[in-house]
Specification:
With 248 residues, the chain is an alpha/beta fold. The protein is 39% helix and 17% strand. It is globular and about 45 Å long. 45% of the residues are buried. The structure holds zinc ion (2 copies).
Length: 248
């Protein structure tokens, strides 16, 4: 008799009798972790409940719900995502993390909003970086890095100096699967590797069709110029963020 491991989608393993390969892989290995997604609390199309279920079906192990926020809605959305994550966690094998994406906020106000989101219970805080796809206020990348956020999302216009600061502060630079934002993945990966900044890969999902497999995530990293030996490190950066939230 064989038992299927928790790994799903393209990462299934089977255990057979004495040789139990499943036990060799702790949770979060060989599975998709996505720390940047949107629900209908901002401009996503799914309820948190459905996004979580869709992510489970797509083979995910962990997901952060990081809706767009500014000073008008941070206190409205974060507590609701905290509630959804807490209640759904009892009924889903996924690790569900309530979060925030601080978006299009003047750089001087970003630090306070990151702190507010954390105080309200956000486990993962993303700052919406200076992408080439939207007119983000210059200085947002620097402010996001200095704000103590976990992830600077799609920072397509990032300078070497700011990437070096991200390395120093331990802020992860995002490689993205999202159309438009992803056009600058190669630049982000290059400056991250030059400066030692850590990277994560996320989908920035707004709907169910945006969720991807870990295999697809690895392809996107390769296409960004990330060498094969660094791909596992990038996946492990996401794993460590999930583990850090679990400890806090
Ligand atoms: Zn959006
Ligand atoms: Zn986003």
């Amino acid at each position: 008799m064989s038992n299927i491991c928790i790994f799903r989608g393209e990462n299934q393993f089977y255990s057979h009798g004495v040789f139990d390969i499943c036990s060799m892989f702790p949770a979060y290995y060989n599975v998709m972790i996505d720390l940047h997604t949107h629900t209908l609390f901002s401009d996503g199309v799914l309820l948190p409940s459905e996004l979580v279920q869709r992510a489970y079906h797509a083979g995910y192990k962990a997901i952060a719900l990081t809706d767009h926020m500014d000073m008008s809605n941070v206190d409205f959305i974060v507590p609701r995502l905290v509630k959804a994550a807490a209640e759904l966690s009892g009924y889903s094998p996924l690790t569900i993390i309530p979060g925030a994406e601080i978006t299009h906020v003047p750089p001087d106000l970003i630090g306070k909003l990151v702190a507010d989101a954390r105080d309200l219970g956000a486990g993962i805080v993303v700052v919406h970086g200076e992408t080439i796809a939207e007119p983000v206020i210059p200085g947002t990348n620097r402010a996001g890095i200095e704000s103590g956020a976990d992830i600077l999302s799609h920072p397509g216009l990032i300078s070497i100096e700011d990437a070096a600061l991200a390395a120093e502060k331990g802020v992860a630079l995002e490689i993205t699967a999202r159309k438009g934002h992803s056009l600058s993945n190669g630049h982000v990966a290059k400056v991250a590797m030059m400066t030692g900044a850590s990277m994560v890969i996320n989908t920035d999902s707004h709907g169910p069709e945006d969720l991807i497999s870990r295999t697809r995530a690895a392809i996107i990293l390769r296409a960004a110029g990330v060498p094969e030996e660094s791909i596992e490190t990038i996946f492990s950066n996401s794993r460590k963020l999930v583990e850090r939230v679990g400890r806090s």
